[in-house]
Fold this protein.
Amino acid sequence: KAIRDKALDDYKNILDEQQKAFKEAYQNQIDLIDKEAKAKVSAQEAIIRSIEEELELLDRKEDKRDFSVKKAELEEELAYWEVRTSEQARQKVADIRKQIDELEHKREVELQKQKLEDKKRTAEEEIDAIERAADEEREKWEKSYNMVEKAFDAHSTNIIAMAATMSREAYQQWVQNYLI
């Protein structure tokens, strides 16, 4: 009986070591893959955000330039017609002032849209930060859970070791199925 108990303990120890080594290697590889993927995705997302910001700035600059050029053209035309006294000149002055008002209104609306887009982008960035924090918290909890799960695995090891002391073939079959 003592020899059988010794063999049982030996199998338990071997199984424990194999199981721990396998789980650690597996978990380390999965963690490494996840970290590398997250880092690569994060780097690409940063590049995309930077490009989007540059495009937005270019669009805003171009909109401002277009507005300034168009307004200057209208003001120049207005100055030309304001010194004229004919009915056609008065009509032209009224028409140009209307165009300037419309142009300024469109610019004002565009600036309001830009402010709203900025607020939206800020909210989206906050959502991303919340999601990243939740992912990190989830990771911590998963690691903690895995540690608890490891503690309960001892029961399974005892059963496998007991079966191994009774049948070497059963143990070899288990090794073939789960470790190799």
Summary: The helical segments are 2-82, 87-166, 168-178. The mean pLDDT is 86.
